Amino acid sequence: MSSPQAATARSGSGPLDSFFKISQRGSTLGREVRGGLVTFFTMAYIVVLNPLIIGTVKDGTGQFVGGGTDPAAAIAKIAVATALVAGVVTILMGLFANFPLALATGLGLNAFIAFSIATKMTWADAMGLVVLEGLIILVLVLTGFRKAVFEAVPLQLKIAISVGIGLFIAFIGVVDAGFVRRPAALSGPPVELGVGGNLRGWPVLVFVVGLILIVTLYARKVKGAILIGILAATVLAIVIESIANIGARTDKNPGGWGLSVPKLPDQWFTKPNLDTVGEFNLFGSFDKVGVVSALLLIFTLMLADFFDTMGTMTAIGAEAGLNDKDGIPPNSQRILVVDSLAAAAGGAASVSSNTSYIESASGVGEGARTGLASVVTGICFLISMVVAPLVTLVPYEAATPALILVGFLMMTQVKGIDFNDLEVAFPAFLTIVLMPFTYSISAGIGAGFVSYVILKTVRGKARQVHPLMWVVAALFVVYFAIGPLSDWLT
Fold it and tell me: Residue 345: inside a domain, yes or no?
């Protein structure tokens, strides 16, 4: 009779285990696959949302992404290219960095590019700026500057970044699910429960049921708790929509589904159109808006990308228990290289900058600990290029309960911050609260870094601040003042 230890050894053997170090990191093949699937389901919305954001905005010449005047054609092209780039760079993250982190078009950045940059030039010119930004960050990574900055950040601020991101993704979850919304009345509070202070609509019920199910299964230590919860909530959503015909959430239909309406598609497969790939003009923006303006736009994109990923990989590594004693995840240099290449790849495919997704934490919550999970997520994105209609089967309300649970798990790290030490406690506090309040990881990190340097200085401890923290704090001051600076310099 074989011993349990021998059985474990056999289950942890094989080329996949050896390459990805699955058993070494305390995981299993099943956990990695489930984790990869969960991450895909919680961020698949980008295949639908990115085309709606950048595919419906005309550039400075009156054309849509990829050229032409038909927004429907642009949306279809962008959906395919969004899935393609996300799939390729996420697989690259898994194979090259062996880290459970998925990438796709960055929300926020895509809207900034669409509404603030592309309207001043052609789409190809705007995408050229994104490619340049990604290449500049890649140079900073290869020279060791980006990693050096990361290592210069005090451990407790790294913990605060993880905690802040946990609160941030929980807030994303309740907002996307319609559980918390912006009120219609301008004189009211900035957010409110449901509609008019009351929960309303079947979709919110799906969210609540999904959340209860996921938490219950997790508490009972059921394998695949998050994945089971998402799939069960999706089935419930499809059944409800088929009976009640609720439709999409709009001003006239506040009780509708957010983003995707969960109904079986008439067409299950689509033919991929990759016309947008390669549609970028590297230096066209310099002619359109001038050198100074172009450089300021690149700086804005770069700083957001630079620190968003730094915060995201810290949080994912901490949640997975992979970070070292200084709060640094394994293969951090490789993670940053892939992220930099992803930014440039997004611009080269005309789908905006690609970046690391904090939704990857949902896969980590399911047990993912290696890059195999990223490979699974990436393959799912590639498959979605031809089965894009199936992606719309999972509405926000079914996927976002996973973010609530993972947000809670990440928040538990707050006990690692010494709130009796004002010099780190106040910067940590600003980092934590400003991420959800501003809907920006970079803004929270920037406020924490700047306040940390200020407090150390006013207490006569300026020499304790790492030189790179001074540099980064100064850059964030510029970042926060970018609006007035742009007006003054141009």
Answer: yes
Q: Which residues contact 152 (CB under 8 A, 6 or more apart)?
A: 466, 467, 468, 469, 472
Q: Which of 367, 355, 450, 444 is nearest to 165 (CA)?
A: 444
For residues 403 and 170, is the Cβ–Cβ distance under 8 A?
yes
Q: 230 lies in a domain?
A: yes
pTM of the model: 0.80
pLDDT band at 478 (very low <50, low <70, confident <90, very high): confident
Residue 14 lies in a domain: no
What CA–CA distance (Å, rounded) separates 461 from 475? 21
Six-digit token string for 385:
């290029």
Q: Do residues 62 and 69 make contact, with C-beta atoms less than 8 angstroms apart?
A: yes
Strand partners, 248: 257
Residue 15 located in a structural domain: no
Range of the domain at 174: 21-273+281-489
| Number of helical H runs and strand E runs in the chain | 23, 4
Q: Please name the residue that has the structure tokens 């497969």.
A: 269
Selection from 287, 273, 338 nearest residue 68 by Cα: 273
CA 89 to chain centre: 14
Digit-coded pLDDT (tens) for 437-458: 988 888 898 899 999 999 999 9
Highest-confidence segment of 126-130, 187-191, 401-405: 126-130
Whether 300 and 348 have beta carbons less than 8 Å apart is answered as: no
Q: What is the pLDDT of residues 150-181, one digit of tens each?
A: 788 888 998 998 899 889 888 988 988 888 88
In this structure, are residues 407 and 170 in contact, taking their beta carbons and an 8 Å threshold? yes
With 0-12 / 13-18 / 19 or more C-beta atoms within 10 angstroms meaning exposed / middle / buried, residue 307 is buried
Number of compact structural domains in the chain: 1
- Between 489 and 374, whose confidence is greater? 374
